[in-house]
Amino acid sequence: MHTLLILLPLLLLLSGCDRGSPKYLLEDYMSRVSNTIEQDIDTKLETNEEIPLFPRKRERIKQTEEIRQGLIEVLDLKYCAGMLHLIAQRNSNLGRVMQPSQKMAYEIRFFSHLESCKDKLEQDSSQPQQLRKQLDAIYQIKARNLKSEIWNGIYGADEFAANFSRSEDAITTEGESGFGATKSAINALTQLAAISPESAGQFDLIKLSKLEDSYKVLHANRYGSRLLKSLLLLSETMERTSTAIHARLDKRPFCFPGHQTQKRDILHNVFIKYYSQRFQPYLSRVHREGDQWRDFTETLIGQFKPTSAVLAHYEKTLSSTSESSLWNRYIKARDAHTKAWQRILRQCNLMPQR
Question: Is 78 left (phi over 0), alpha (psi -120 to 50) or beta?
Answer without folding.
Answer: alpha
